[in-house]
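stage 2 :: seqdesign
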């Protein structure tokens, strides 16, 4: 049984195939509107989510399938002490595929060890968020036309940001992708994720803006700082406004996994380089491709 627990579970060829399917969905949506008829997706979300949960729901419905599940663990048997593995053993009787978000790192992997249906990791703690990574890859491909030979800057919380961790891993397998890390000392990227072509680490966006083809913004989280004076000192360095974009390439694109707080000012939204809301739409498309492919593999099993 094939699952998606970590982005490295899929080869580059398989990821490229999913992106190709997403492009086919864009061009020929009618081909896919009934491919999951009589199939059910269970969304087991043990922590809050808006975009990811609704994206999975919309994706399955557009494929002609149905959706069941819970968006709050308190409304499930988890509140009675049921384990993740037991929940999956029960739910797989009602669904053909499961998308799980959990606050504990490794919970989706634990679920996959007993599951007889495909498990999709929709985010586990600060570990990984592979379907967001697929979303990011599709967005980069659509926005700049390639997944190789470009420079990307990751800005904000690189220590706890699971979307950053997954995307850096994925991009390490593509040719000549240069990575620039932009973060305060408190939120620098952990050593285990420093793979691929990381060319430099800096503390302000301005000093690298002219080099970037993609700027990947995340929130600098005040709660991660033990010294609030230190937070006050660095916070404005990681807030994107129109002034900071003056030196950016006209073709540069801004991504953000969302939700944002104040790290991108609303004035940036009107800039054609702001791709983060288009990124949300790409999430639905790539999840459609993923659900379709995993169910095909399950059928062949």
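stage 2 :: out
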């Amino acid at each position: 049984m094939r699952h998606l627990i970590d982005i490295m579970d899929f080869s580059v060829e398989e990821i490229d195939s999913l992106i190709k399917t997403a492009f086919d969905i864009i061009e020929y949506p009618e081909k896919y509107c009934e491919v999951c008829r009589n199939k059910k997706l269970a969304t087991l979300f043990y922590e809050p989510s808006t975009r990811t949960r609704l994206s999975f729901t919309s994706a399955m419905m557009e494929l002609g399938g149905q959706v069941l599940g819970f968006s709050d663990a308190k409304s499930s048997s988890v509140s009675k002490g049921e384990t993740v593995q037991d929940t999956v053993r029960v739910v797989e009787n009602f669904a053909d595929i499961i998308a799980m978000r959990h606050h504990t790192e490794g919970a989706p992997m634990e679920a996959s060890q007993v599951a007889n249906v495909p498990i999709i990791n929709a985010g586990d703690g600060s570990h990984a968020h592979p379907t967001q990574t697929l979303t990011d890859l599709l967005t980069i491909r659509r926005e700049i036309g390639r997944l190789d030979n470009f420079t990307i800057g990751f800005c904000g919380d690189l220590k706890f940001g699971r979307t950053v961790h997954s995307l850096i891993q994925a991009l390490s397998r593509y040719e000549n992708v240069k990575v620039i890390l932009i973060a305060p000392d408190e939120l620098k990227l952990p050593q285990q994720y420093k793979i691929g072509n990381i060319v430099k680490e800096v503390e302000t966006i301005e000093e690298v803006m002219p080099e970037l083809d993609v700027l990947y913004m995340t929130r600098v989280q005040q709660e991660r700082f033990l010294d609030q004076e230190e937070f006050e000192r660095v916070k404005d360095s990681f807030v994107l406004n129109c002034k900071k974009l003056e030196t950016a390439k006209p073709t540069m694109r801004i991504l953000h996994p969302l939700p944002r707080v104040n790290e991108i000012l609303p004035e940036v939204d009107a800039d054609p380089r702001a791709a983060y809301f288009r990124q949300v739409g790409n999430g639905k498309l790539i999840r459609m491709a993923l659900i379709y492919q995993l169910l095909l593999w399950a059928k062949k099993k």
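stage 3 :: structure notes
- The CA atoms of residues 240 and 264 lie 5 Å apart.
- Strands lie at 40-45, 66-70, 97-102, 119-124, 150-155, 177-182, 197-202, 214-217, 253-255.
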